[in-house]
């Protein structure tokens, strides 16, 4: 049913779009160059964000502004309305200033924050349970019975330990008496002595057993007093867990997404068919699904989309103010697969491989391994949708050999790649990589002029599990990632550098280049952490390792072609 509460569509002026052809197919959302119409829409939205202080959201762009700094992803969708008039819709990922209700932006697919919604009602119940748990945890009686139990446990351990030691000493004394008197007493007197010693032994056993029994009873009473509180806490936690799970499931069913044919699927249905099995947190709250949903409900024809970041970057991610980014894969890809079903899309550039630009050069070849100069744009190994790769080409060149990839280079990275021909060589060289005895040097062109000439970057990395293959900086759980670098040439707007990766993490050089705590200068052409270009200007220029057969160090070098 159309949303008549507010007219959320913004129309282009005829002058602004004069001479710009309409896109023939919809944007491929996971890799795109923004269409000129989406650039105009994004510029107008950015102007709106700059001039509307009433949004009351701290994007981190104004020094000293109060409130938690939260940058946001915004999206625009170019559409034709039911009369064919050209306009655009705007959306924000998640909430803006704690609300889903903003005139400039389309509403969420499901607004859990509307007054008296089932979500808020149930959330209030859950909050009441949280309050009750906090009350029990902070109850002075609970604190006292835990202290009593701890004190009694410590006291019982001391008393039982002391009596056990005394019994052990008494036993040793009785053993010594037996040994000493055995030679001096006649048989009758020795039997009498033995009977006395046995009585003493039985008394020690009785006293220890009685003490343990007394403390067992005392501790059980103290534990029961503690358990009375902890059972209440556990029951409350279980109720909270059950209510939260039921609420989450109810939310999943309320998020129902349409496609151009009016076919609907709930969030739960969509993700039940994926490896996740269930929707990840905040799935369905991204900009593009909101935009498409509003367009389909109101009978608008989607023509093109674009998303950009607005505000300060989060500490973990690479996000640049005003820069365009693709839709996320973990949360949006399954949803958009349904929503875009049946719509003609721009070609997936990941599937386009130019044989002419990706000629594979053999740098070295013997019976143990081959070293190739991988061109930018060619995979190291076959992908889900692309068979063409270093592996497949070597397999074609050497049909009698099974190529064994020792290490990998990103599809966009050019340079030296080592491929073993035997299991023995593969094991030997790979062990050197694991032991970090392989020396590597990369050359890169960075997207700004650097102030420093050299240094070391130490930023721990962790995969962005819901947006692979992106990486995040994480000082709590990230793996140690260290890169040495040195500037080798400065140009008007770029810097050419050499990198020596001292660890081998996924996207290490790309992250260390782009992150604000690294060089804050994305590699030119980095389509994930920077801006796409004709290629990514990163090249594996040098590699040195021990030959698996001769045990001599071998070196290979191919200069970057930029």
Salient structural properties:
single chain; 562 residues; alpha+beta; Pseudouridine synthase; 3 domains; 10-stranded mixed sheet; 5-stranded antiparallel sheet; 11 helices; 36% helix; extended
Summarize the structure in words:
The mean pLDDT is 92. Strands 8, 9, 10, 11, 12, 13, 16, 17, 18 and 19 form a ten-stranded mixed beta sheet that branches. A five-stranded antiparallel beta sheet has the order 1-3-2-6-7, with helices on both faces. 36% of the residues lie in helices and 19% in strands. It folds into three domains: 10-110 and 262-348, no CATH class; 135-251; 353-557, Pseudouridine synthase. The protein contains eleven helices and 19 strands. The chain starts with 9 loop residues before the first strand and ends in a 5-residue tail after the last strand. It has 562 residues and is of the alpha+beta class.
CATH architecture of the largest domain: 2-Layer Sandwich
Largest beta-sheet characterization: 10 strands, mixed
Q: Distance between termini?
A: 55 Å
Q: Can you identify the CATH superfamily of the largest domain?
A: Pseudouridine synthase
Shape: extended
Cα gyration radius (Å): 35 Å
Average residue-wise pLDDT: 92
Determine the oligomeric state from the structure.
Answer: single chain
Helix share bin: 25-40%
Given the structure, what is the number of helices? 11
Which class of the largest domain in CATH terms? Alpha Beta
Do you know the CATH topology of the largest domain? Answer: Pseudouridine synthase
Please mark out the parts with pLDDT under 50 across 5 or more consecutive residues, or reply none: none
The sequence of SSEs as H and E is EHHEEHHHEEHHEEHEEHEEHEEEEEEHEE
């Amino acid at each position: 049913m159309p949303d008549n509460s507010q007219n959320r569509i913004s129309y282009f002026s005829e002058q602004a779009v004069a001479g710009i052809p309409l896109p023939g197919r919809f944007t491929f959302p996971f890799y795109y160059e923004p269409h000129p119409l989406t650039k105009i829409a994004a510029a107008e939205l950015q102007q709106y964000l700059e001039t509307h202080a009433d949004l009351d959201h701290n994007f981190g762009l104004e020094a000293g502004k109060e409130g938690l700094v939260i940058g946001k992803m915004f999206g625009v969708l170019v559409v034709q309305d039911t009369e064919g008039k050209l306009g655009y819709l705007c959306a924000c990922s998640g909430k803006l200033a704690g609300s889903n209700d903003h005139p400039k932006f389309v509403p969420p697919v499901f607004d859990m924050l509307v007054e008296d919604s089932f979500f808020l009602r149930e959330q209030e119940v859950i909050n009441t349970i949280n309050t009750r748990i906090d009350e029990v945890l902070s109850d002075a009686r609970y604190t006292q019975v835990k202290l009593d139990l701890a004190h009694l446990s410590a006291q019982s351990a001391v008393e039982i330990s002391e009596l056990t030691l005394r019994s052990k000493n008494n036993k040793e004394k009785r053993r010594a008496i037996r040994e000493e008197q055995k030679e001096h007493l006649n048989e009758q007197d020795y039997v009498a002595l033995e009977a006395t010693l046995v009585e003493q032994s039985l008394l020690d056993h009785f006293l220890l057993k009685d003490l343990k029994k007394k403390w067992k009873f005392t501790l059980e009473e103290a534990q029961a007093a503690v358990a009375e509180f902890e059972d209440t806490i556990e029951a409350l936690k279980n109720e909270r867990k059950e209510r939260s799970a039921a609420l989450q499931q109810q939310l999943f069913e309320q998020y129902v997404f349409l496609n151009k044919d009016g076919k609907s699927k709930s969030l739960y249905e969509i993700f039940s068919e994926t490896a996740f099995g269930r929707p990840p947190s905040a799935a369905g709250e991204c900009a593009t699904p909101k935009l498409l949903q509003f367009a389909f409900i109101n009978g608008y024809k989607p023509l093109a989309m674009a998303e950009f970041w607005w505000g300060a970057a989060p500490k973990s991610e690479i996000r640049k103010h005003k820069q365009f980014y693709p839709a996320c894969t973990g949360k949006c890809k399954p949803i958009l697969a349904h929503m875009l079903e049946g719509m003609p899309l721009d070609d997936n550039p990941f599937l386009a491989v130019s044989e002419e630009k990706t000629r594979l050069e053999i740098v070295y070849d013997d019976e143990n391994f081959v070293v190739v100069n991988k061109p930018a744009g060619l995979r190291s190994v076959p992908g889900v949708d692309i068979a063409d790769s270093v592996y497949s080409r070597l397999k074609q060149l050497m049909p009698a050999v099974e190529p064994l990839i020792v290490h990998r280079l990103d599809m966009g990275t050019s340079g030296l790649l080592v491929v073993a021909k035997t299991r023995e060589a593969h094991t030997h060289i790979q062990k050197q990589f694991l032991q970090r005895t392989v020396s590597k040097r990369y050359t890169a062109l960075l997207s700004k002029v650097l102030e420093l000439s050299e240094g070391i970057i130490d930023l721990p990395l962790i995969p962005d599990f819901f947006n692979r293959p992106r990486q995040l900086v994480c000082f709590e759980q990230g793996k140690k990632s260290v890169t040495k670098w040195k500037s080798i040439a400065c140009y008007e707007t770029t810097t050419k550098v050499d990198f020596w990766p001292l660890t081998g993490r996924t996207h290490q050089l790309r992250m260390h280049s782009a992150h604000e705590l690294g060089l804050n200068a994305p590699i030119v052409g980095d389509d994930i952490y920077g801006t796409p270009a004709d290629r990514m200007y990163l090249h594996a220029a040098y590699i040195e390792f021990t030959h698996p057969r001769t045990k001599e160090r071998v070196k290979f070098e191919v200069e970057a072609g930029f």
